[in-house]
Design goal:
The complex is a heterohexamer, with three copies of chain A and three copies of chain B.
Chain A lengths: L1 E11 L3 H11 L4 E11 L2 E3 L10 E8 L2 H18 L2 E9 L3
Antiparallel strand pairs in A: 1-4, 1-5, 2-3, 2-4
Helix pairs in contact in A: 1-2
Chain B lengths: L1 H7 L2 H14 L8 H25 L4 H26 L4 H12 L3 H14 L6 H8 L1 H15 L2 H6 L4 H9 L2 H30 L1 H24 L11 H26 L3 H12 L5 H9 L5 H31 L1
Helix pairs in contact in B: 1-16, 2-12, 3-7, 3-11, 3-12, 4-5, 4-7, 4-8, 4-13, 5-8, 5-16, 6-14, 6-16, 7-11, 8-10, 8-15, 10-15, 12-16, 13-14, 13-16, 14-16
Classes of the chains: A alpha+beta, B mainly alpha.
Bound molecules: adenosine monophosphate (3 copies) and sodium ion (3 copies).
One adenosine monophosphate (AMP) sits at the interface of chains A and D.
Chain lengths: 98, 331, 331, 98, 331, 98
């Protein structure tokens, strides 16, 4: 077991590809993306019921055991969230090495 | 009067209203998201293929090319005056997104108008499907260009501009790409290709359109309800009456523009109605998808609600028969 | 005997058993959830629309209205005696939920019976679709009312009662709403509407029913397996043999009741069988959805398993031909 | 970055609307809802394979930086969980402000 | 030459290329995952049912049984030499998974070949569907057995071997089970059953195949792109040229093997082409699903990419007409 | 509220049944499974776009208030992850009792 950070990002679906591209460029060790999630926040309800995918969000989870990388990722994500909304949470976890 | 009634009596339109009622009475009826998305891909595939086969069977002359050119020009022109009219009262981003929305077209409104003509026994030409497919992109490009030109400089810095991305979003956007691609394949394979896929492309079309419009009714009514509940966040302070007014005035004005163009081009009754419907309708699939990427500052609660929850039902219910009556009267 | 064999030889029924076998041999075959849900919406849409068109083509007289009234009455009556019989050995919530389940109907059992009649060349009337649509709600209301009346007072306090929600759940429940709405639209648009949607509504019906029943076979067999593995949690201590016995006895008893009603109403052979099947079948879509909201204390492992994993296959396999033989013999 | 609580709720799908309504009334700042998740717990297996949606769960995530609001939300959710099952976890996180 | 052109002009194949182009131009077009999965179940259901009805209508003699036996034998034999050829340059797990992949078959390649024959007006027999269904399992079993026999002992310890699981994965695998089950039901219900489901099973087949191949084109092109971007992780150091070479050489070599078998069995032109296509094609649904469970050490980036992104388009585009020309020339 | 561990596992879909079987045998109190998630990691991108489900992952959440049980679960999961990839994170949470 190795301590690490769990970064959790909720962002709208049309931005998902931009986000994963950012993560790749930042050098993130990996990510898991849950598509088609619903939600509500400052910009009202997002019902995930539109044909363009425009009203659905996705939830992205990144485990990262390198604090410098965590900071890089957060800095890369911040302007995206400012422009198109969403949230980003960071918490502590233990990573099971296998 | 009778055209309104016969329009009301068509199953697809009635299913749209069934969807609206489902939301009003708070039924839990809904079409699963992936099934609805597949239905919309099916419609684009079927429209495109049929249009392509029709193109292969018709002869493309100067008149056809001129009509296509005029259609493209209108889809680039409509955003310009829409943008400048709205910019005074809305944010630049919202004005640009609404402009792109109304320059572009609604494939389902087009299809409903075509079905309406079939029911009335009025002929129309396949190349108008090509016009529809060609009208999506110019509007998207114009909207983005107008925004980049008139947005305050600090925003422009925050959002670097990429022509490559702009073209990709406007030309290779899923809906535009599928309809153009299916049209091309329909054109290549012609009537022989049609005979292979006819039961799917023609046989099921109106039935699946019913199920699709049921879903559209549900989604449109939800947006309309959210819209009225002026609530927290960005919605606050939106000039609601302006939005409703614009969502009704723009299609009517554009319909007149389309009527003028149809008259100048000397189109037949059916073709004129379809051109009018293209100009008068607003996009709610291709444009919103492009705007989320290119103009995330614009509020979909504004542009999407206007086109989906107000203009779309207005055109379906009143617009099509009214434009038809007008066409008959004037042409 | 031959009716049983010909029933067994129909593709939809065989696909149900293919689904059961898939679970028995632990195949990973499954229909994606959203596709299965779309299939079930399609079936309700198609049944409703066909029924509505049939209504528009028939003349609704006093006999028809009386039959509808009797159908509604039976859907309200069945829950009452079911509840009091079961209350002694099960919790009040479970008894009420089972009561609602069997008062209501299974659209797929109805459809299979109608297909069976078509194969046997026996005529039946479209207004029985209306009977089916009308029989869902009364049973739900009765189940909830009985529960509220007989539950111990502390539970009743924990779950405030809302008539508004009750009506909304029983009348505007997705399945009830879609079938009623489609029936209405079929009735309004009549044969002209049917000609537009016929390839979807009639052409594909039996084929898509095969795929739907394949899914039903998988789901029913899974429930049955979970049920036998008397395991952790709420399932513990359920009187399994009572449940299996009840899930077989209730439909048979109700079928006899339906037979009596059909005899008194003087229905034709086909209509009698359909009324019997309605009374004898139990709901596994509309009622469970309503019960999860109104009676979360009831265990779906009990009421849903009984109707889906025991009564449904029993009716499909043995019930329909047996009720038919009985009808022929007595009427 | 601002400290906050992550509230995570798993509840059955038919209760989802009741839950989001409760959250709205309690004044929650937002939520993210993952639909159609499977699960198992005290009341046996939930396979997410039924047409009525009766056997699927949903997973709701709420980020909240106001402890009083967290308590309000938990009090509102508790009776729902008692009646129809499910779980609720609360953990610590940092919220990236943008 | 003309066979190549007429093959190119068929709508299903053109939609495959439309999907490829969508990826190349970075369009966001995609078929929702559950809809694509449902389409693939539909295709297996329709192929199986049609094959079963064809079986019921034909008489099964010694020649038919011999052909089936040969087909099964080839599906067990192909993995053996493929494994030993590849083991020198790839890991044992990868070699075994590729071996199983090419011993098994691609249902869509088969269907496209059958459609191609229909277009060319060449007859073929229904029992070849049975051959296809029977060829999936032996290859899976051989692949796993070869791996267990030749893997280094420490790996073998880490992964306990279960014959029960092996049989279940190879025989009751979703695709194998559905096609065998549908064939059995088609065979039981015969032409009477077909008349009930014909609009779904026959009418929509080519149209839905277009939509399915559109999805396949997208997925294949994505795999191919990932594959070229020799990137992080396990992909590193894969001998890319070896893989591309093998993915082209194996089908050609196997096609010649199939041609030889067809000549010895004295098959007709149509049947010979279908047998050749079965031997030459590689699985990308049933085998990968089985391999993930039985051989997780093997890299799907290798075996799946080879069969889906290289062999499949190769067979569709060039293979089928080339094998046909060869068959015509030699038989 | 009772302290507990949140175990989060991302594993490929074909392994999901093996994993839930392991959890059951280990005696886990329950689990929640989010199907059809995408991802990227050491073994490249998993796009969740294949018909065999071969390229999708699932995300499994287990709340467990018994440390011995947590260890049993982790030991049971470890070899699965070694063979077919994926990640496992463990973090702290409070479990709302109802
Ligand atoms: N407090 C919150 N907790 C959980 N999810 C949130 C919260 N606020 C926003 N979200 C998610 O982020 C999306 C965009 O949020 P916003 O930009 O605030 O509208 C919402 O649709 C939710 O899915
Ligand atoms: N220990 C647990 N860890 C994760 N999820 C759980 C746990 N217990 C229950 N759940 C979820 O909550 C749902 C309802 O749980 P229950 O009411 O205990 O049957 C289950 O179907 C799971 O999705
Ligand atoms: N650092 C990470 N953070 C989040 N998810 C990850 C991470 N690494 C791997 N995953 C997930 O685990 C799956 C398998 O990972 P791997 O075995 O490393 O390819 C990936 O497809 C991701 O969904
Ligand atoms: Na327009
Ligand atoms: Na009943
Ligand atoms: Na092969």
């Amino acid at each position: 077991m190795k301590p690490c950070k769990r970064i959790e990002i909720v962002i709208e679906t049309p931005m998902a590809q931009t986000l994963t591209e950012l993560l790749r460029q930042a050098g993130a060790p990996g990510f898991t993306l849950v598509p088609e999630v619903r939600g509500a926040g400052d910009r009202g309800e997002r019902r995930a019921d539109e044909l363009s995918g425009d009203s659905s969000n996705c939830l992205v989870l990144i485990a990262c055991d390198d604090q410098a990388m965590v900071d890089t990722i957060l800095e890369a994500v911040r302007p995206l969230l400012s422009r198109s909304g969403g949230i980003c949470l960071v918490s502590e976890a233990q990573w099971l090495r296998h | 009067m009778s055209v309104f009634l016969s329009n009301l009596g068509s199953p697809p339109l009635l299913f749209f209203f069934l969807g609206v009622i489902a939301v009003v009475v708070r039924s839990d009826l809904e079409i699963p998201a992936q099934a609805a998305k597949f239905l919309s891909l099916y419609l684009l595939f079927a429209i495109g293929f049929k249009g392509g086969v029709a193109l292969a069977e018709s002869n493309i002359d100067g008149g056809v090319l001129l009509t296509l050119l005029v259609a493209v020009a209108m889809s680039a022109l409509v955003p310009v005056y829409t943008f400048f009219l709205l910019k005074k009262r809305l944010s630049t981003a919202d004005a640009a997104a609404i402009a792109a929305t109304y320059g572009s077209v609604s494939a389902v409104t087009f299809v409903t108008a075509a079905g309406y003509l079939d029911m009335q026994g009025v002929a129309w030409s396949g190349y108008l499907v090509a016009a529809m497919a060609l009208m999506e992109s110019p509007a998207i490009i114009m909207g983005i260009v107008l925004y980049k030109r008139y947005a305050s400089s600090d925003v422009a810095v925050a959002s670097p501009f990429s022509w490559r991305q702009l073209l990709s979003e406007s030309l290779f956007n899923a809906s535009v790409f599928l309809i153009l691609g299916s049209m091309l394949i329909g054109w290549i394979t012609g009537p022989a290709g049609m005979s292979q896929v006819e039961p799917l492309v023609k046989g099921l079309f109106l039935g699946l359109l019913c199920l699709f419009l049921l879903d559209m009714g549900i989604v449109a009514a939800r947006r309309f309800r959210d819209f009225r509940q002026v609530g927290a966040g960005r919605h606050k302070g939106q000039p609601v009456s302006l939005m409703v007014g614009a969502a009704l005035a723009i299609p009517v004005f554009n319909a007149l523009l389309g009527l003028g163009a149809a008259a100048l081009l000397g189109l037949s009754e059916g073709d004129a109605l379809l051109l009018i419907v293209l100009v008068a309708s607003g996009s709610y699939i291709a444009v919103p998808a492009a705007m989320r990427l290119a103009l995330p500052e614009a509020n979909p609660g504004t542009y999407l609600t206007m086109s989906l929850a107000i203009t779309f039902p207005f055109n379906l219910l009143l617009g099509i028969p009214a434009y038809h009556a007008l066409t008959r009267w004037l042409l």
